[in-house]
Design a protein that fits this description.
Blueprint (H helix, E strand, L loop, with lengths): L5 H15 L8 H7 L30 E2 L31 H8 L5 E6 L5 H13 L6 E5 L2 H9 L4 E3 L10 E2 L3 H19 L3 E5 L3 E3 L4 H8 L5 E5 L4 E8 L3 H16 L4 H13 L13 E2 L1 H7 L15 E3 L6 H10 L18 E5 L7 H15 L2 E3 L3 E3 L2 E4 L7 H7 L4 E2 L11 H5 L1 E7 L12 E3 L8 E2 H8 L6 E6 L4 E3 L3 H16 L1 H4 L2
The structure holds 2-acetamido-2-deoxy-beta-D-glucopyranose (NAG) (8 copies).
C-alpha cells in the first residue's frame, strides 16, 4: 500500500495533516448552508443571514469598522454604459442558472477566472472597479459574485456578469466588523473560491477595492508558471486574501480546504484563515510565489509609504495593482481613490454634470485657519449654489493634507455629501472640458486677514473688513456670475454672516460648529 508509492504517500499524508489542523466536529449550520451555491431556479430560503458588507482584507484596521451598507439602488445611479463588454462572443453571458454554469461561461479557455465578491455595501466601489480596472483593460474572464439579488439584477441590466451565491432577505442592513454576520459574509469568499477550485478552475480572487493599472493575469501567470499553487499579494506583513491567484492543484485546493475549516470552526476571518493555511500547507509542499511588491502593492505601501494623496503625487510606473486597504471605512476608501483619480463611478453625474457650478480657493497662509476658510467656502457655496472644490489643507505648515486633518473622512463625507468635491476633482478626466475651461478671473475678498501682497483680478471690499462679507454682499457681487468655476484667491475671513438670522443660526449649527470641532463632526 503506502510503501509502494512512497512519495505519493507522504504527499497524501501531508495533505491530510494539513487538513487535520483546525478540524472540529461541530460545524455551524449557517456555515454549511452558506457554503452551497444556489441555483437561480427553485431557490429555497436556505438561510437568513444578512448581507456581507465585507469588502477588503483590512484586518490591520480598527476592529470597530462599521461597514455602511448602500441604499437601495435607484435608476439614476446607473451611469455605467451598457455594453456587451468588448464584444467577444465567448463572454456574452451575464446571468446564469447555476454557479457552475457561471464559471464555465466566464472562465478563459485555459480555465482562469477572476472572482469578485461584492454586495450593496460596496455598490459604487464595485461599479468603479468594473470601469477602471476590468473594462479599461479589456479583462473578460471575470464574474461578480454577490449575496444580494438587487445587486445582481442591477448588474444584469447593464450587462455585467453576476451570480447570486446565496439568497438573503436582509440586503441593505449593515454588519459589524467582527460580528457573526460579518464573518459569515467574509466566509462566502472562501466558499466560492473553494468550490471553483474543485471544479478545476484557477482563481484570481480580487476585492473590488483593488485598482488595476494593467491586466494582472499575464504577469501573475508568468510568475506563478505551472509550478506554483498560490500567488498572493504581500500585504506588508502577511499574505492578502483580497488579491490572490490560486491554481487548481492538489495543494491549492488543500489550502482552501484548510481555510474552509477555519471558516466553519472558528471566528477568524479569511485573512487569518489564509495565513494560517499557508503556514501549515507550506510545510507539506505548498508552493507559493509572493507577488513582487513593486508591482502588487498594499494600501500601506502604495498610499502611505508612497506619499500618494493627490492625483499628481508620485506616479507609479511599476504598479500593476494597488489595494486600497490599511484604511478604515468604505467612505474613506472612496475618498482616497477619488483624490488619486482612481475612482470613476459617475452616479448622479458626480463628474460629468455640465451644469453644476463650482468654487475653488486656496489656502495660502499656514498661520491662518484652514477650518475657518472652509466654513466660509461652504457658506459662499450655499449662497451661490456652487459646490466647493476643496483646497489642499495645511498641516505641519505644508499644504499637503486632506479633510482628514479636520474631521474623520467618514464623518466629513457623510455630513457634507453633495456640497463639496475632493481637491483633485477638476483635473479628473471625466469632468467635461466645458467645465474645466469655464474658469473665471481670480476674485479677492479684501478682508483684513488678506495680506497686502495678495492679488486678485477682481477685488471686492466688504463693508466690515474685519469680519468679512455678509450674505447680501456675496449675493450682490457674485450671484450673476456664470462661469462654471468661480475662483477665489483665498477665503480668510471672507464671510461674516447671513443677513437672515434664521439662516445664520441654521448654518452655524449645521456647518460652522460641526467643522470647528472634531467631536461635533462625528455622525
Ligand atoms: C448587446 O447585446 C444585445 C443582445 O445580444 C443587443 O441587443 C445589444 O444591441 C448589444 N449592445 C451593444 C452595445 O452592442
Ligand atoms: C430569498 O429569501 C426570501 C425570504 O427570506 C424569499 O422571500 C425570496 O423569494 C428568496 N429569493 C429567491 C430568489 O429565492
Ligand atoms: C467546507 O467544510 C465543510 C465542513 O467540513 C464541508 O461540509 C463542506 O463541504 C466544505 N466545503 C467545500 C466547498 O468543500
Ligand atoms: C485541475 O484542472 C484540470 C483541468 O483543467 C484537471 O485535469 C486537473 O485534474 C485538476 N487538478 C486537480 C488537482 O483537481
Ligand atoms: C515620502 O515622504 C517621506 C517624508 O517626507 C520621505 O522620507 C520618503 O522618502 C518619501 N517616499 C517616497 C516614496 O517618495
Ligand atoms: C443648484 O445646483 C444644482 C446642481 O447643479 C442644480 O441641480 C439646482 O437646480 C441648482 N438650484 C438652483 C436653485 O438653481
Ligand atoms: C492656488 O495656488 C496655486 C499655487 O500657488 C496656484 O497655482 C493656483 O492657481 C491657485 N489657485 C487659485 C484658485 O488661486
Ligand atoms: C457668461 O456671460 C457672458 C456675458 O454676460 C458671456 O459672454 C459668456 O459667454 C457667458 N459664459 C458662460 C460660460 O455662459
Amino acid at each position: 500500500m503506502c510503501l509502494l508509492k512512497h512519495s505519493k504517500c507522504i504527499y497524501v499524508l501531508g495533505i491530510a495533516l494539513c487538513l487535520l489542523f483546525g478540524i472540529v466536529a461541530i460545524y455551524h449550520e449557517d456555515c454549511i448552508n452558506a457554503m452551497s451555491p444556489q441555483t437561480a431556479r427553485g431557490r429555497e430560503h436556505r438561510q437568513n443571514t444578512e448581507p456581507p458588507a465585507a469588502i477588503a482584507h483590512d484586518q490591520h484596521e480598527s476592529p470597530s469598522t462599521d461597514i455602511p451598507m448602500g441604499s437601495p439602488v435607484s435608476s439614476n445611479r446607473l451611469s455605467i454604459t451598457s455594453e456587451n463588454s468588448t464584444g467577444n462572443d465567448l463572454y456574452k453571458h451575464v446571468s446564469f442558472r447555476s454557479y457552475n454554469e457561471a464559471l464555465e461561461k466566464r472562465a478563459s479557455p485555459d480555465k482562469d477566472v477572476l472572482l469578485v465578491y461584492a454586495d450593496l455595501g460596496v455598490h459604487d466601489m464595485a461599479l468603479s472597479f468594473y470601469e477602471s480596472s476590468l473594462k479599461k483593460h479589456g479583462i473578460e474572464n471575470y464574474l461578480f459574485v454577490t449575496s444580494s439579488s438587487a445587486m445582481c439584477q442591477e448588474f444584469h441590466l447593464i450587462n455585467i456578469p453576476c451570480f447570486q451565491f446565496t439568497n438573503n432577505s436582509n440586503s441593505g442592513t449593515g454588519a459589524h466588523y467582527g460580528s457573526k454576520v460579518f464573518k459569515e459574509k467574509m466566509n462566502i469568499r472562501t466558499f466560492m473560491v473553494l468550490h471553483a477550485l474543485k471544479e478545476s478552475y484557477n482563481l484570481l480572487h480580487s476585492d473590488s477595492d483593488v485598482y488595476y493599472f494593467a491586466n494582472p493575469f499575464p504577469v501573475i501567470k508568468e510568475l506563478c508558471g505551472s509550478e506554483c499553487d498560490v500567488a498572493p499579494l504581500w500585504d506588508y506583513m502577511s499574505h492578502n486574501a483580497g488579491f490572490l491567484y490560486t491554481r487548481n492543484t492538489t495543494m491549492g485546493i488543500a489550502m482552501y480546504e484548510h481555510m474552509n475549516n477555519t471558516a466553519c470552526t472558528t471566528t477568524d476571518d479569511d485573512q487569518v484563515a489564509l495565513n494560517r493555511a499557508i503556514e501549515h500547507c507550506t510545510k507539506i509542499g505548498l508552493k507559493l510565489v509572493r507577488l513582487p511588491t513593486e508591482q502588487f502593492q498594499s494600501g500601506k505601501l502604495f498610499f502611505d509609504d508612497g506619499n500618494r494623496t493627490f492625483a499628481e503625487d508620485n506616479p507609479c510606473t511599476t504598479c500593476i495593482v494597488a489595494h486600497n486597504n490599511w484604511i478604515v471605512g468604505i467612505a474613506a476608501k472612496e475618498y482616497r481613490f477619488k483624490e488619486m483619480h482612481m475612482w470613476v463611478y459617475d452616479g448622479d453625474e458626480y463628474y460629468s454634470s455640465s451644469d453644476r457650478k463650482y468654487l475653488v480657493y486656496n489656502n495660502t497662509d499656514p498661520s491662518q485657519s484652514n477650518v475657518e476658510a472652509l466654513i466660509d467656502a461652504f457658506a459662499i457655496g450655499q449662497l451661490l449654489n456652487r459646490t466647493v472644490v476643496l483646497p489642499k489643507l495645511f498641516c505641519f505648515k505644508k499644504p499637503k493634507c486632506t479633510v482628514k486633518s479636520i474631521c474623520t473622512v467618514d464623518d466629513f463625507t457623510t455630513r457634507f455629501k453633495g456640497r463639496y468635491r475632493e481637491h483633485s476633482f477638476l483635473t479628473h478626466p471625466m469632468v467635461p472640458r466645458k467645465i474645466k475651461d469655464s474658469v473665471g478671473e481670480v476674485v479677492l475678498i479684501e478682508s483684513q486677514s488678506v495680506p497686502k501682497s495678495a492679488k486678485g483680478d477682481l477685488s471686492l471690499v466688504p463693508e466690515n473688513k474685519e469680519d468679512g462679507a455678509t450674505s447680501a454682499e456675496i449675493v450682490r457681487w457674485l450671484s450673476n456670475r456664470n462661469e462654471s468655476v468661480l475662483r477665489f484667491h483665498s477665503l480668510y475671513n471672507a464671510f461674516w454672516k447671513f443677513t437672515d438670522q434664521e439662516a445664520n443660526s441654521e448654518f452655524i449649527n449645521n456647518v460652522g460648529k460641526v467643522i470647528e470641532s472634531k467631536e461635533k463632526c462625528k455622525i
